[in-house]
Amino acid sequence: MKLLRKLYMLAVRMHLDKPVILVNIDGGICSQMQQYLMGHLLAQHGYAIRYDLSFYEYGRDTEGRQVRNFDLLKAFPQLTFKSVPRWKRSLYRRCFRYIGHYPNDTMSDWLNQHPPIFLGGYFADVQPMYTDYKELFLIDANILDAANLAIYQAIPDNSVAVHIRRGDLSKYNEAYGHPASVHYFVQAICLLEKRLKHPAFYFFSDDMDYVRREILTAIPMAINGTVIENGAERGYYDLFLMSRCHHHITSKGSLGKFASCLNPHRGIAVVLKDDRQLGPLAFADKEIITL
Question: DSSP assignment of 201-225, as one string?
């Protein structure tokens, strides 16, 4: 490995290759957005940024069950995006690895890295990452299919997106902690039913059977509720629809928080009191209620 490093650096000095920061992209649509933002911020230092998509050769959640597709450019085709050839990807992974362990490690020293480097794992957010958030991730509803576009256009101003993450977070997870309980969602729904005038609730989940069986049956009053069924394989459709809603009840995971910050209105965001991973919501002008 040391020999490979020396040979590569010699090639760089001979101008046979240009060193880059290679950012690994994995996970669902919000992980992809967060990792893209890391590269976008590092590019402002004048570094050449490239992205590694090898995760999507398999593309599954942490339990290997639910599919994870590379949807970033499907959702936001206007983004500037470059990858590297296979040999360079392999070399950087072997010789120039710098792995983040967020949330166990909350240091932001990834900001001080320079080429050649491979950034893998997960890293702590910093506020400057989200300076261009809405400008980079412009919502074009015409990307949706006809059925979802009709839903998007019909979502009213007094709407509440309820994101119920299940899948690999339906039980205790070392990074995320315990999953959100039925009581949390019912409490949040009851609170916003009182706070807002005739709110319309939209339910999003990767396990709609659970939502119908456990959540909807536990709500003690009649509500105006709509269940959206896109599934984990079309997470960016849910991101678009949730971003249309003015208010959000979030779950463990990122989707509700990233969607909330794409909505231009201040709105209310309900989060779990033990949720340490707020993403852009930690820096947004939203009314945050913890339960």
Answer: EEEEES-HHHIIIIIGGG-SS--EE
Q: Phi, psi at residue 192, to the nearest 5°?
A: -75, -25
Which residue range is the domain that position 19 belongs to?
Answer: 2-133
End-to-end CA distance of the chain: 50
Q: In 3D, which of 45, 69, 47, 66 has the Cα closest to residue 56?
A: 69
pLDDT tens track for 272-289: 999 988 999 999 999 999
pTM of the entire predicted model = 0.92
Total domain count, the chain:
2
Determine the 3-state secondary structure of 235 from DSSP. helix
How far apart are alpha carbons 165 and 104 in whole angstroms? 21
CATH for 246? 3.40.50.2000
Contact 255, 27 (CB under 8 A): no
Tell me, yes or no, whether 273 and 147 share the same domain: yes
